[in-house]
Amino acid sequence: MLPIFRRGSEAARLAFPSMLAIVLMLFTAGAAAAHAVAEGDKGYIQEISGIHILPFIYLGAKHMVTGYDHLLFLFGVIFFLYRLKHIGIYVSLFAIGHSTTMLLGVYFGWNVSSYLVDAIIGLSVVYKALDNLGAFKVWFGRQPDTKLATLIFGFFHGLGLATKILEYQIAQDGLIPNLLAFNIGVEIGQLIALTVILIAMSYWRKTSSFLRHAYTANVVMMTAGFVLIGYQLTGYFVS
Asked: What is the pLDDT of residues 18-42, one digit of tens each?
C-alpha cells in the first residue's frame, strides 16, 4: 500500500494524461455498460431454449475477459499481492461472491436496477484504489478487512451480471444447467484474464518504474471508477 498524501504535484502531473485518456475512452463507449451483453449474444440468449452447455461456457468466459469493471477490480486486488497463495485467497473470495449472486439473482428473478448495481461496482474500483493508496489508514487510522470487502463487492459484481441476464429473458427450460455453464465460463475467463494480468505485473514489478508509478496507476484506476459511477447514475436518473 502507498501513503496517499506523501506524493507531490509531480505524481499528479504524470497521472493527468492517463486519467484523461481513460475518461475519454469510457465516455465514448456510447451506451455500452460494464455488464452489457453484445447484441448478437443477446439475440442468442433470447431465442434458444433447452440445455446448451458449451455456448453458455463461451458466453461466460467472453463476458469476463471483456468486462472492464471486473478487470479493473481484479487488477486492484492483486496490485500489491506477490504470493500465489494470497492471490488465490482473494480471487476465490471474489469468485464465491460473484457466482452466488449471479446464480441466485437469475434463478429468483431479483428485480434490481442495473444502473445502481453498476454504480456500486464502480465504487468497488474506487474503494480498491483508495485501499492500495493507504487512504483509509490515513483517514480513519485503521485498515478495513480487505478479504471481507472483496467478498462483498464480489456479490455486487455477480448481481450486476444477473440484472443483465434477466433483461434478456433467458428461457426457463434448461435454466439451471445453462447458468452453471455460464458461471463455469466466467471462472475460466477470470483465470485467463488473471493470468495475463499476473504475467504483465510480474514483468513490471521487476523494473524500477513499478514503485515509482504505482501511485499514478491507482489514481488512474480510481478515476475510472468515478467515471463509471457517474455514467451509471446519470443513466439511472435520465432513464
From this structure: 444 444 444 444 434 455 556 667 7
